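Teaching note: in complex prediction, the entire set of molecules is handled at once rather than each chain in isolation. The prompt given to students was simply: 'Predict the structure of this complex.' The entities are:
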Amino acid sequence: MILLKDLTKIFGSFLAVDHLSFEVPAGEIFGFIGPNGAGKTTTIKMLATLLQPDSGVARIDGHCVYTDPEKVRQVMGYMPDYFGTYDNVTIHEFLDFFARAYRIPAKTRQSTIDGCMELTDLKKLQTKLVSSLSKGMKQRLCLAKTLLHNPKVLILDEPAAGLDPRARIEFRSLLKELRNMKKTVFISSHILTELSDIVDSVAIVEKGRLVVSGDLQTISRLSSTQNHIDLRIRIHDKEQIESALGIVQQTENVVNARVENDSILMEYNEEIDKMYLVLKQLVNADIPVTEVTSSQSNLEDIFMRVTQGEVS
Amino acid sequence: MEFFDRYINPIHLLGLRSYLRTKRFLYTFNISVLLMVSAMLLGFFFMSIERMPTAQIGKNLFMIFSIMQYVIIGLVFPAFSCTAIISEKEGKTYDLLVTANLSSGDIVWGKFLSAYTHSAMFLISSLPIVMMAFLFGGITPALIMITYAILFAYAALIVMLCLSISSVYKTITRAIIASYIVVIIINSFISPMLFFLLYDYLHDSELARFFIAIGGYGSLNVFLTVYIVPVFVFLSLIFAPYLVAKNSLRTYANNRSTSLKVYFTCVGSGILAIFLTYYINSIYMFIGIQQLDYEMIMMVGGFCLAIAGIFGLIGSLGFAGENPVPERFVMKRLSEHLKAGRIRRVFASKFFLGLLGPGSYRGARFVTLMCFGWTAIYLLATWLLIEKFGVNNTVFWRNYEASGYMEYPIISAFVVVSFVYFFSMLASFLSFRIRQIGFRRAVLFCMLLFLTILLPLYSLFSMEVYGGFHASILNFQYLSPSMCFFWSFIPISQFGGSKFSCLIDGVPIHYIGIGVYFSLGFLLDLLNYRRSRKMWNELEKEEKEILESMDKK
Ligand SMILES: Nc1ncnc2c1ncn2[C@@H]1O[C@H](COP(=O)(O)OP(=O)(O)OP(=O)(O)O)[C@@H](O)[C@H]1O
Ligand SMILES: [Mg+2]
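The expected output is the structure of the full assembly:
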């Protein structure tokens, strides 16, 4: 549904988006993840026909964003990361304005607006002035305007930023509803976990380059083939913690071992069924182990690992 | 109602809804009305102390009224539009508009309409006030009507100008400052001029002949020069800022400049020439208390037309990175629209121009066509004026009549068209190689060619035949068909006719001109055609390859 091939944007001499290529299948909720300054907004602006790509192609529903921007806009709903509203205009008038802009005929306009207001729970507020809305309500209003022309593709740039926990949950259920409506949703965020239970696939970018992309299972399998577990071993006797650290450091496949309070933290590059090997070393040396906790990598770790954490 | 609903510009509607509700609008509106009424009452008070005759009071009140109008246009109207577009950008609503599939034209037009509606409310609200002056007599309904026509046209120009400024500048403050500077400068030129025109008309005083410099005699001529010309000029000048605004709002850089170029070539140059000539002459008279003689007018006209020629030249030259749009593509789009019954879209400038415009090559053809149309309209108008309305005191036509060469207008129209055809084809020929040549060098080359070879050559012929400097200056007219308009405002009485003999006797030379220009132009046209096809085929191939590689993936 969305296709990027070698999409590139250069600001002056700064490469903001560097030959980005990936594909978003129809009907999926797709997470576009990256740290601050990764080039997410820049990519999205190019997809939304707001910024001229320097090279490469982007297509939405088969239409090239550069040669056919009108058609792209017709099938795409775009919600920017920051947006403003108009003073002295009510919610209904605001939506009416965009409905007219999309040339929705007068006959169906009112019902379309009503439908969108119901979906986003704005119906009760429709005579309120837009400028008096809270951030969360504005976000919903913008989503409502994005849905007006019944787009196949929704492109949302950090839609959950600035929402309180309750609103986030509501937003998530809204996304699920959109999925039921068979819409393709392209959603950017810098927090992967926030999306992990609703997105089907993700693309992770950093410094304008694609780090990894694919559906969630593939990505977590990809990172678990790296055989990575985090281990925390609590030791009863503080005196012996140093010697325990020495033993652990000598063990194969253990990296990054360090002491934290009464525990030793380490990364163990093996499958979980090999974990006993570490413990065996410690037990053989009479180290009083009181607790062992292991954690397999979750999405957050994937994100932390694949990105370098450098903010450009 | 539903029929009209389709044609309402959403931005216009939104502008009306949001701005009319503000207190600011209410205050400015009432204060300006109050100011105007008090100025007129004050004027009336002093005039009645002096025991003026009532007709005089009426005239003076009318003048106070018009001064106040220009002040309001200059002070209040820019405020309606000078932040219109930049405030959308700063308020982060602009992207929403663009992705809502509002074209840059829709945005500019909608913004203009809403600002202009507000301006029009101001203007209309002054109508009852001007009736005060009307009560005293001394002014006619026709005068009031024509004054309003000028005011409306001038207001439209100011509003559009500020709108274009708001689309170019990057911050609100800068846009406001720039708008007011520009408007104050323009207003300080134009409103005195319009005012003096009115003064002239109302008072048969010493100044009476100042601004009717080229107007001469006959009420129709006076009306033409004094009133129709400003309205005409203002209205046609509106397109320049409109296109500037529209162009600066385009997301993608390709074909950004096409419509602006077409404008400059076809309309801007001609209007500029008329306006400058007209205005410079007025200034000269104001200083010298004497009319410019004919030679001076010619010099000024020649100078203005040279400027116009440069504009036209730059207009026809393509810019690097400009893609020719294939006819096939345009035709496909057109038939799509026709089938879907979207008639308005067919005439939307993009497609309309697309057929002839984008890509410097088609632009060049379009320029030729426009010139032809322009000239044809002029000839038709002149013919109507003379045959149907019995006005036969304009130079252009009378000379032909006197000369006995009745085919002259047609011939000179062909000279104009063929010259423009040749020159724009040459420019577009260069534009295909603009990457190699560079824009500046291309302009320089054209200018040199024009000034050193073509013009002197042509003038040489003329001088050979008629002798003298004037002949060569006269030939500047072939740069622009709008020069024809210029001629039509010069009454025959202002010169003996002798200096125009070159025009009269010059028929044979024009045949040569037409032949040479057309054949050279046609040759270049063929070359351009081949080149544009080649370029398009390459583009198409490239696009296909990309698509195929994607499908494989
Ligand atoms: N108009 C511009 N001119 C110059 N540089 C720009 C411009 N827009 C963005 N950049 C740069 O491009 C890089 C990517 O910016 P972008 O806004 O796309 O990041 P992002 O992934 O959306 O970050 P965030 O999570 O903070 O929103 C940044 O380093 C930014 O400084
Ligand atoms: Mg961003």
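Point out the following to students. The mean pLDDT of chain A is 84. The first helix of chain A runs from residue 40 to 47.
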